[in-house]
TrEMBL record:
It comes from the Archaea. Residues 103-249 form the DUS-like FMN-binding domain. It holds the Pfam family Dus. This is Methanogenesis marker protein 9. CDD domains: arch_FMN (cd02911). Coiled coil: none annotated. SUPFAM superfamilies: FMN-linked oxidoreductases.
């Protein structure tokens, strides 16, 4: 296993692990990050209010007891805060504005410091949404996508933070991706139910953007549930106030999964109805009635095309072997966490570790989706 177990890159940034500190207005600054997120792969500071409209809204929020960042020179504050983070994590800056100009200015400065800009389309406080900022952007997709396109024009790595179950999510996500965003930061909120895992799966199947998921993560099992539905990264916020060691424990546990299994966010099997499209890598030959058929249909593939894609990938790899398995090749075998003496016997004979097998399965999962996109218009949602 390499010294750096994760290979997580977006544009000019590389994350050392898939755990992030999420922004909380008036709380998540450099001091907070240094105290609670020294081990994180990404710390997102903010949200910072860039223009008079959002500054005034923040002042009203402060007056009724909410915490907010207010500065006469927000860009100088942002630059100082980036320089004050000592952990070595990638830094993201969550920002709000009522117009595009301050966002372009901030994006240029943030890019020059090697950080990420995160556009806040998430804040639902009435004072902020009344200005057209925050969550109000979700109800004005033309303006949102125009801003995304212009911000990306600066070359900055761009994340867009949204709240789920506010508008039609798949339409929104596809619009954000077409506009050029690099990262989608999803608060998978479902009122009264905690994290909406079904929504995470549906969004994973609809986009190839780097996906950060957030909501109600208080321990490793919560994170694993998000990872198994397609999250590339999981972010935590108020959970660190209750457990100051939360991020460190998440990093430790998920790093152990990556070392032992080779694929920290491996999907669930699609036959359980919970796995995203990457889970097709674990599917049997499609010769009987099962959910594999509905899932390959989402990719615009016939059963024969799906079989051909898997067998084409297997050629020249260890997945080509396995005469004694159910369908004569490891390419049709299941997730390593599911007991199978036939598969395990082949792995032992080949000298292929669990982690090496799963890394090949990850490559296969990506290959299936990429080949489907090349031959069709992509997933049918």
């Amino acid at each position: 296993m390499p010294d750096k177990p994760f290979d997580l890159k977006v544009g000019y940034v590389s994350f050392r692990n898939p755990i992030a500190l999420a922004p909380m207005g008036g709380m998540t600054d450099s001091k907070f990050a240094n105290q609670y997120a020294s081990d994180a792969g990404l710390v997102i500071l903010g949200g910072y209010n860039l223009d008079p409209g959002t500054q005034e809204a923040a002042s009203k929020m402060l007056a009724r007891g909410r915490e907010e960042f207010i500065s006469e020179n927000p860009l100088r504050l942002i630059e100082e805060e980036i320089g004050a983070v000592k952990s070595g994590a990638v830094i993201g800056i969550n920002v709000r504005s009522t117009s595009i100009g301050p966002l372009i200015e901030a994006a240029t400065a943030i890019k020059n410091m090697g950080a990420i800009l995160e556009l806040d389309a998430h804040c639902r406080q009435e004072e902020m949404t009344d200005t057209g900022a925050g969550q109000a952007l979700l109800n004005d997709i033309p303006r949102l996508t125009e801003w995304i396109s212009k911000i990306r024009g600066t070359g900055v790595v761009l994340s867009v933070k949204i709240r789920g179950n506010v508008v039609e999510d798949i339409m929104l996500v596809k619009a954000i991706e077409r506009a050029g965003a690099d990262i989608l930061h999803l608060d998978a909120m479902k009122a009264g139910q905690g994290a909406d895992l079904k929504l995470i799966k549906e969004i994973r199947d609809s986009t190839r953007m780097f996906l950060i998921c957030n909501n109600s993560v208080t321990g490793t099992e919560d994170a694993k549930e998000m990872f198994s539905r397609g999250a590339d990264m999981v972010s935590v916020a108020r959970g660190v106030l209750e457990d100051p060691g939360l991020i460190s424990s998440l990093v430790r546990d998920i790093s152990a999964v990556q070392r032992d299994m080779g694929w920290y966010n491996a999907p669930k099997h699609v036959c359980r109805g919970e796995g995203d499209l990457r889970g097709l890598t674990f599917c049997c030959l499609p010769v009987k009635s099962c959910p594999v058929h509905s899932n390959i249909k989402k990719l615009g593939l016939t059963p024969q095309q799906f079989a051909d894609i898997k067998m084409d990938f297997a050629k020249g790899t260890m997945l080509e072997y396995g005469d004694s398995t159910c369908f004569g090749s490891l390419v049709w075998c299941c997730k390593i966490s599911k007991p199978c003496f036939l598969r395990d016997g082949v792995l032992e004979t080949l000298g292929l570790s669990d982690a090496e097998y799963m890394r090949l399965k990850k490559e296969l999962g990506d290959y299936i989706i990429e080949q489907a996109r090349k031959s069709s218009s992509g997933p049918k949602n």
